[in-house]
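Annex B, item 7. Sequence and structure tokens for protein A, then protein B.
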Amino acid sequence: MPKLRGEAFWRETLRSAHYVVAPMVDQSELAWRLLSRRHGAQLCYTPMLHAQVFLRDANYRRENLYGEACPEDRPLIVPFCANDPEVFVQAALLAQDYCDAIDLNLGCPQMIAKRGHYGAFLQEEWDLLQRMILLANEKLSVPITCKIRVFPDIDKTVKYAQMLEKAGCQLLTVHGRTKEQKGPLAGVASWEHIQAVRKAVNIPVFANGNIQCLSDVEECIRKTGVHGVMSAEGNLHNPALFEGRNPLVWEMAEEYLEIVRKYPCPLSYVRAHLFKLWHHTLQVHQQLREELAKVKTLEGIVDVNRELKLRCQEEIANQKEGEKPKEGLPFFHWICQPYIRPGPKERCRENGDSGTEKGVRGKRALEEEEDGNSELLSKNKQKKKLRNPNKSFDPSLKPKYAKCDQCGNPKGNKCVFNMCRGCCKKRAFKETADCPGHGLLFKTKYEKSLSWQHNQRGIQTPEISQTGDTEVGETAVLKEAGDN
């Protein structure tokens, strides 16, 4: 059966999904996806996966996709970050049986994406993106989709989207912010850009940005004409967003924790979700915020959640008639509701700064420092500096690692092939060679094995690279050497 494309793919495979949960690192795991689906989400993405790691590491595949297979978790899209067509497609081939589409993530704006050269930092490399999508569209049995950020210029954004469509993209998610708009500088997403893309392409389009409640979803669809709307932070603070409800926080937290019991995930994921759900309450009960940060077990998290529930119920019991929410919140703090990220000026005031450049740039210090434009240090580096005052973070003093000729990872300093250990092992095995630098002695072990056979059987040692029975024997010897 030929794979569906464009509108047919959205309508039949994705079941005309309008409400979409975004891919979120360490936050859109199976348990959270199932919770979101129970409360109105019609389509979910897994967290973004690293194509090269997914291809080479069986444990990574099991932990991030294979071990999470669940019939209830469909339709499902798996996003990859990648910058090599072959690596991307080979990784996608390993994932396609576990999902309904493969997404090429071109929207990640974080520093790790800049260092790894993927995500939004590929948006100027149109030739590379065309080759990646063309190859994926040709080789995969499921459709290829893309998630992008916009350029400041609407016309360039439209041409970008049309290029991706022409290359074979079957669905496009447009985040209406540029790659520079993130963290405290996120600002408002441009629905104007999204609307222009929707009018210019003939494939389904999802919108991402400015979604805090169901009315935002409805307004976005009305103004932009998109097929569906994706939510990230809005969903994290209120997983019932797509139902149009604002439930009690402890109801969502308890339901999520029950799902986690059935579908376990790292404790750090669970803790992060409760920090989001209880965000406004934890501003009031600071002591429990610290306890939630320190707790080491799932049962400990359940206990903190129970204590937060009891304190909120006590507040409700003592509430005076006509009392209104504090801190300008639309609801009382124990009700799921949006969190509006403060801009640079607000963040300065929160941190006790006067609005100077230093206050504005504190969050972005690491990025600017790496670009050589600032002497400021990130919070993590400031902590390291306190532990070791002599430590230097000058990029010019960092050791430069030579890269493996084969894969780009750091090569072994004494490798005879100028490769990393993994690539060196494959080549040394294939060529029956030694690499003392990596402790790989295929040739030496092979020669010792032949010598041992000669002594045992009293026959003449066969030469390397013979055919017939000798070749079969050599293969067994090589395998034995490789296993050792």
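Protein B:
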Amino acid sequence: MVEAWYMDESQEDQRAPHRLQPNCAVSLEQLRSLGVVYRKLDADNYETDPYLQEIRRAENYSWMDIITIHKDKLPNYEEKIKTFYEEHLHLDDEIRYILDGSGYFDVRDKADKWIRISMEKGDMITLPAGIYHRFTLDENNYVKAMRLFVGEPVWTAYNRPADDFPARKQYMKFLAEEAQ
């Protein structure tokens, strides 16, 4: 099961857990209130998993690829790691399914505090368009993930501040409605 928590303010190694002391856990319900959707799947059988096929059909995830993030596998590794960790948003949902390894997705809560979501093999996450987020490897320095898209992939990340985009405005409207 996925684990999430509020992060400390430390600027040290981004790959460290950065838990508050004492730990301040975040529930799946709290993540859902931010529009974050979590699923657990069978990563050992992703090629034939009927549950994954059903998700792809139901959500219209027509495009996918697999990325391996490791210093020996990803060209421009150090540059990519820095880019992934810059706070940004996308104009479309971001869907990632961890096939092997582990890493962290960090998302902003309604009060603009960082929540760290620990992702490992079998975890699938959907981050809604317009949410500020970032990604980093954990101390294992390796992840293999499936990236899913509706239609053709759009890789553009808009670094913060990006509050004028319709996707951000729509996301903020969603948060306001969730608060009522």
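Comment on protein B: The longest strand covers residues 94-108.
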